[in-house]
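The material for today's practical consists of a large collection of protein records. A record pairs a protein's sequence with a compact description of its fold. Instead of coordinates, the fold is spelled out as a row of discrete tokens. We will come back to this pairing of sequence and fold again and again. Here is such a record, shown just as it appears in the course material.
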Amino acid sequence: MRHLLLALPFALLPLALANAQSHEHDHTEHGSLDKHEHGVASLNVALDGSTLEIQLESPAMNLVGFEHAASSAADQAKVAAVRQQLEQPQALFALPIEAKCTLKQHELQGALFAAHADEHEHEHEHEHDEHAAHEPGEEQGHSDISAHYQFDCATPAALQTLELGSFFGSFPGTEKLDVQLIGPSGQQGAQLSPGNTRLTF
């Protein structure tokens, strides 16, 4: 599922290095796994033929509003609500209807989701992921959430834009999305915000 996205950071490395020259926090350009900046998330998008892959990496603070273990009922409800939102990517990313994209696979990862699953979904089919994601003491430090999506688009030529207005509306804690895109026009980088929500292929 991740073969396109795994190659993405390497393909965009020259672009990322160029961006880093003018970026105040150049450490954030070296890949999503090395950064944790509240308010900032990364979005990798790759379109190859009829296959569209989207990868979101974000501090949990941006999406859930906290990074500690969800011990209270209110916190657990918030985690469950965010998970439900992330499981509906068509709404978050506003894929053009004309592209006829169907979600084929998706995967959510994060210590908050794992802990929530430990308490409430002992029979969940992804139970084996929980042990890898839930490290002792992690809830006291930084906590990240990642989401991977793979779509099959019957009319990929109709994929001209992605509209992220709904994403920013759903997760107001996200102030900026650093985007890396590989599409028919080649590779490009972009920075989206609540005032600039459209990604053009």
